[in-house]
Amino acid sequence: MALVVPPRGAKFPEKGCESSLLWERVGPLNDKGEWPTIFFSRRRGLYLSCGADRQPARAAIAGSGVGGPRLPPVSFLPAGMVCGAEASFSSEMNFRLLVPPGTSSARAGLLTTGHGLVRTPAFLPVGTRGTVKGVLPRDLLDLGAEMILCNTYHLLLRPGIQALRDLGGLHRFLGWPGSILTDSGGYQVFSLSSLRHVDDRGVAFRSHLDGSALFLSPELAIELQLVAGSDLVMSLDECPPWPASASVLEQAVRRTVDWAAKGKAAWTRLRESDPALPTPEAGLFGIVQGGADAKLRALCAEELAAIGFDGFAIGGVSVGEPAEEAVRTVADTVVHLDRLRPRYVMGVGEPWQVVEMVNLGVDLFDCVLPTRLARHGVVYTERGRLSLRNASFRLDTAPISPECGCYTCRHFHRAYLRHLLKSEEMLGVMLLSLHNLYFYFSLMKEIRAALEAGRWEAFLAEQRARRREEKEGQ
Asked: Are 36 and 165 contained in the same domain?
């Protein structure tokens, strides 16, 4: 995938197409061997063009001014995605299943937002404060990132939501052309146990930066995300700790549903009253809570479905419980979610968890592990994790992983990377972050390829066998 930068003087069939975002080479469509352009227009959605009047635009990273024109790698669309010369996609947030569930619940799809296409299952790098730590936006695009996550709580504190609006919205502020999902900030606020007070109106808390008093209501959480220009907006939820009593879980579910209803009303009102919102095509997600209680999870999912959302997130997992229990909780939840809407597990997880949750029918994931572990000198390989700070790598001239095609593995060996880490050079963390993110994006590509090729069960068996070998070798 790459941004489209139309050639000077290019003519488009209608007003609005000049803001086209994406194109892929999908193979000659006619006897002249001409390559089509896939245009993404807010007015018309996704469609193909082929011929001299609309030649494929040369691709470049918009606004970077670095490297000149770039052609993206050849990439093939899933069979059946485009029929004939034109495919109709809504200019609203849209989700289509391209590979429906088979013997398992795993599926592949295409999520359309106002800032492009997201092929699912997808992994979202975490840019909590507006940056994926140690990684340039250009590198994220090269890795294949189509959506990132930002956090409303941190952006509310710095630079401030009004500043984001004055500066043209979150996408322009970050220099990120792809889609953005924003967390409501609820999880971060609830982690400030000594600095916050919760009631049915919302959460009163003090900034961890300067101690100033702030209040986050379900309505304000939606407004902040819409004003910032998020593509996927999360409702405010109450995330209970682990473990938690039945009464605490019941209260969290009640508040989460109540806040979701208030947030949905605010969403409708704001979109009708403010035509200048940066992303009118945004989608709204409800968040399912309930801890490890399967009945409460089912109740919460059913109540949220009655309110009506564009997609559903599964929250309150990976909050301290055993990793296997997180998978069970997702299994208990996902069966109650609309199969035609995207499903997102928040804050998960390890690669093996991602595979297992894809098997359950999950479409979106985010996790800080790739970059957080890189900052501690830990990298992923096909055979498990490695800690490059270990003395055993002092004279090791092998790449992190011989099978890996990332920039780090193609140019540097373990001994040099260890040297950078021990010397506290920032380049070390940057190179390890690139490798770990490449590992995750490669996994997601393999997952989608297995689903599209109809070999998911074999792929799942291979991954589980590898997981067993990894555990036995620990």
From this structure: no
